[in-house]
Recover the amino acids of this structure.
């Protein structure tokens, strides 16, 4: 599947770079436009445990996807979206990343 535009639920440069690097590994994804957007995780600032970490990523992903869809529906087009339309790509995606800590015995790692 080709994705023209991917909105990532973070403005963290390290996380955005990780997404760009990962997408470069796949022919259908390497031309995707990656845009960071503010998205709340609805978990503590430093999540601890699998549940908080995955919940945070899901919440960021849902918000990023809603913003991507809204950009198409509202007519507020940025350069990447205009290019996607010229090339007849209408695919958009939202992606959420969350880093957290996990308890191993008595330690938090």
């Amino acid at each position: 599947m080709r994705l023209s535009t991917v909105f990532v639920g973070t403005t963290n440069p390290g996380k955005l770079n990780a997404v760009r690097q990962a997408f470069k590994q796949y022919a259908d994804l390497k031309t995707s436009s990656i845009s960071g957007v503010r998205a709340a995780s609805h978990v503590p600032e430093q999540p601890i445990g699998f549940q908080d970490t995955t919940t945070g990523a899901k919440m960021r992903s849902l918000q990023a996807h809603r913003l991507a869809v809204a950009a198409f529906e509202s007519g507020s087009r940025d350069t990447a979206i205009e290019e996607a339309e010229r090339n007849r790509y209408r695919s958009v995606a939202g992606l959420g990343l969350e880093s957290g800590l996990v308890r191993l015995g008595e330690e938090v790692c």
